[in-house]
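**Folding the chain**
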Amino acid sequence: TSFSPESLATATAVKLSRVLYLVPIVTFIAWRQRSTGKAPFPYFILFFIAASALGTFAHLSASILDGVRTLATIGFVFALLSIGVGVQRETLKRVGIRPLALGLILWVVLSLLGYMAAIRTV
């Protein structure tokens, strides 16, 4: 890559630190948004912590990591599918064109930036 090993290590640490902020933030939001009665605990946080610990401390073989990556991709596809299935035409009419236009613009900009970054590093 065009970056030094030190800068890559720093960037990785910063990225992982930002991701770890999800745990207290989501827990706090769940606590604040609780309705009357017992608020459901966001159990995905426990799975996130377990996966992070496993990835950090366990020395897994390449074949196991490939399987985990495949499962992660499948899970991501199902998550996006679930979001898409939950969107209804009436909801889209109610929110209007602006959120859809913003999503399209962001998709185009990020796609172009990713493409430009990929060309630059090749």
User: Anything to note?
Assistant: Residues 29 and 35 are 12 Å apart (CA to CA).
